Amino acid sequence: MNFGIVGGGLAGLTAAYELGKEGHKVSVFEKEAELGGQAATFMVAGERLEVFYHHIFASDVDIISLINELGLGEKLMWLDSRVGFFHQGKIYDFVTPIDLMRFSPIGLVDRLRLGLISLYLRWYKNWPKMEGTTAKEWLLRYGGRRNYEVVWGPLLKNKFGASSDEVSMVWFWGKIHLRFTSRQQGKERLGYMSGSFGTLVDALKERIIDCGGQIHTSSPVSTIIVEEGKAIGLRVGEQTYPFDAIIATVPSPAFLDMVPQLPAGYAQKLERVRYQMAVCLVLILKRPLSHIYWLNVSDPSIPFVVVIEHTNFVDPSIYDGKRIIYISNYVSKDSPLGSLDADELLIEYMPHLRKINPEFDPACIEERYLFREEAGQPIITTHYSSRVPDHRTPISHLYLANTTQIYPEDRGMNYSVRLGRKTAKMVSSGSAMFP
Question: What domains, with CATH codes, occur in the chain?
Fold first, then answer.
């Protein structure tokens, strides 16, 4: 069978790889010049670096098994992570129970409640029971107002903006449940690949081509061609490519534009999902900003969510001693921050970086890069499971796999791999019935 894949991120590449292994012919179409989607890379000091920060957890079995299957297991490094919390001008370490007991912005009773909630959510599995409750409601009820105001509320507000009060407790459960699985004996260990996760992207590309597949970059798909209720091909520029079935791994708004023939009920599910735009400013520095890898920001006056100091996780010697930080933000599409260029955004952020480190000097910035993704973070609201679109669309031979369908987990490379495998299996098993 001949299958078309729209999107060259990890979901699309994994689907193409799985179908190619079974002897099917596959063609991948990626609008950007580079493969990888949000795991795409660029060069820093002769080494590749992801455009958006990435690591994996010990519980990320899908991507770990794929890495091993591709013979890349030796390149997967498990490194100690240093998590911190910035509040009222001070950085607090925030990994171990001792760190929690030292977290003075909240009282002793609230610290105990915070720890008990984290432990409870780590082991809790009955997430459907939480579907009708917002994160704000649940955390206020069980964690108390002070914990919400100091810890959880600012983080939700920074990530989801005006929609923060609508976010489902299931989304919050997933974040805590996942993160704490990588913490053992007072440490957190996270996975990163030698040479960046671009190594995984390269291996998938190579295997796809070895199996007879084709990969087209700088090739945006304008239309999924539908005739008599059946997807039959793709239009890319002036060219038309016929296929027996198609998997689209693009955000819901892009999918709607490609397939205006979608039935109203299915289209409405796609239209109802809202996204926050991911805005990521990457700075290459001469000196470190802090000693923390993952610094959560709990200050409503600071216009970003988290600072990820990559070289407090991966050895800076890999990048000739340069220090690398990601300043991450999630904004609505109409936010002024979403339209600023790198220099303008740096001017906006500079006073706040000095709050984190009063000695931070712009002269230590060697390079700056700005990356955006309009569909960066789906906003997961209550009763979301009833609004998840099926992978099998109402149009015959057409499948969708994107981050709105990962629920109850949140977006991430592991779940992109899982989506790719799942939809490939659906397409392959259905191919015997294709007319």
Answer: 2-54+197-273+381-433 (3.50.50.60), 96-184 (1.10.3110), 189-193+275-378 (3.90.660.20)
